Amino acid sequence: MAAKSSNLMTLLTVAPSAFAGGDIGALPRIKSLSALKAEVQRHFGKLSSRELEALVGWFNRNFFRLER
């Protein structure tokens, strides 16, 4: 099920520390921004390019720190 745009943008305002309580499992082994983008598309479905870039950027900044 794809996330609705308003829910997605709300997620982007959440501090990464909110996930520190152990509610998320191990992160997938992602080694490139293109792989991260593909993983986000797989989990969140059809997003606008703006939403996709925002979400990929948020995951990269807060969890992966992949080179641009």
Keywords, please?
about 70 residues; mainly alpha; 3 helices; globular
Choose one word for the global shape.
Answer: globular
Number of helices: 3
Oligomer: single chain
Strand content: under 5%
Overall average pLDDT: 77
Q: Class by helix and strand content?
A: mainly alpha
The count of β-strands is: 0
Q: Compute the CA-based radius of gyration.
A: 12 Å
Report the major sheet.
Answer: none
The unreliable regions are none
What's the helical proportion of residues? 40-55%
Write down the secondary-structure element order.
Answer: HHH
What does the secondary structure layout of this molecule look like, with pairings?
Layout: H1 5-12, H2 33-44, H3 49-64
Helix pairs in contact: 1-3, 2-3
Structure description:
This protein is an all-alpha fold and 68 residues long. It has a domain of 39 residues. The chain is built from 3 helices and no strands. Helix 1 runs parallel beside helix 3 and helix 2 packs across helix 3. The N and C termini lie far apart (29 Å).
Short description, anyone?
The chain is an all-alpha fold. The protein has helices at 5-12, 33-44, 49-64.
